[in-house]
Design a protein that fits this description.
By secondary structure, the protein is α/β, with parallel strands linked by helices. It contains 12 helices and 8 strands. Strand 1 and strand 2 form a beta hairpin.
Length: 343
């Protein structure tokens, strides 16, 4: 029998080795996806992106009045988000009616290799698609270029003669994409010119793109050299954005319709999928705090944020399905009822 001292020594060795093994294991987002979306969309400049579409949009769809684009989280599980999108559509009473649901999939290099996908399949690193960074192949297309291509298809009046509303919504990692795309978007111009309303729904992201060096936790920011670099700020912008000045980006962002959809229970500072880099920690301890602080900051800027609203989803944590199918989620996506906690 081991003495108490020997037992504690052996136990400490096991704990240390277990922690080392855990640290060496890839995170869930660093593993190939389980399902690749079946449809394909050609992106100008070369490359194709997989996606789900609830209707055959290669043919004219004169009945469609609303398009809802839902962006998956960092697991790249577009299949799960497509089911949530359809569930929300049914809950809103819109199933089989005048709405088309679209869920693009931003694949990683590991996904393409695991499924033996064609070389023209666009792919990024495990998480670089969240900030609109260039793809690693087959050409350096931004993930935002995929959204531009989707909006370009929707702007084709031969295919969508009665379209009147487009919603770009994302949760978690997809919420990061939605927020940054609302800053950077080029693809919504043709829709706006045609009188089609475009709005962005940003649900429970880990971080936001700030337009100044101001941060909710300045002590962390001051000790974090990259706190104001993109995707957290306006420095070191990726190629998709380099032609635009930060002032112009902020002006465009403030003019867009944005709904920040935050779960009141998304408050775990140790959530496994929460961005814990110093760049993100400078924005607050958890997703709810970071979202509320960002909205407050934007409202205090020179131009304010008259077209932006904060909607709280009471009792929901970091749950994409719960957020999209909540009363506030359905109001944001389909304009049904209203959100009781709208600010």
């Amino acid at each position: 029998m081991l003495s108490p001292r020997c037992f504690l020594f052996v136990l400490s060795l096991l704990l240390v080795s277990g922690q080392a093994a855990a640290q060496g294991e890839p995170g869930p987002h660093q593993r190939p996806v389980k399902v690749v979306a079946p449809e394909r969309l050609a992106v100008p400049g070369g490359g194709v992106a997989p996606l789900y579409v609830s209707a055959d949009w290669s043919q004219p769809l004169p009945q469609i009045e609303r398009a809802v684009i839902v962006l998956h989280g960092r697991l790249r599980n577009a299949d799960v988000y497509f089911q949530s999108a359809l569930k929300a559509q049914t809950a809103a009473g819109e199933a089989g009616k005048a709405a088309v649901m679209i869920v693009p999939q931003f694949l990683a290099e590991g996904d393409v290799k695991a499924f033996g996908l064609p070389p023209d399949t666009l792919r990024w690193t495990w998480t670089s698609w969240q900030g609109g960074e260039p793809a690693v192949g087959p050409q350096p297309a931004s993930s935002f270029a995929v959204l531009d291509a989707i909006l370009g298809r929707l702007a084709d009046r031969r295919l969508f003669p009665r379209l009147r509303q487009v919603v770009v919504a994302g949760h978690s990692g997809g919420g990061q994409v939605a927020q940054r795309y609302a800053v950077a978007a080029k693809g919504d111009a043709a829709l706006t010119a045609a009188g089609v309303g475009v709005r962005y729904v940003v649900a429970n992201p880990s971080s936001y793109a700030y337009f100044s060096a101001e941060r909710p936790v300045p002590a962390i920011a001051s000790a974090c050299p990259g706190f104001n670099a993109w995707k957290y700020g306006m420095e070191a912008l990726p190629p998709y954005l380099t032609a635009s000045a930060p002032q112009a980006l902020e002006k465009a962002y403030v003019a867009r319709r944005v709904i920040y959809l935050l779960g009141t229970k998304d408050t775990d500072p140790n959530h496994p999928a929460l961005d814990k880099s110093c760049m993100a920690e400078a924005q607050g301890p958890h997703r709810l705090a970071r979202g509320e602080a960002y909205v407050a900051t934007m409202r205090q800027r020179d131009s304010g944020a008259p077209h932006h609203n904060l909607w709280l989803v009471d009792g929901v944590g970091h749950n994409g399905d719960g957020m999209l199918t909540s009363t506030c989620g359905l109001a944001a996506l389909f304009d049904v009822q209203s959100c009781p906690s709208a600010r």
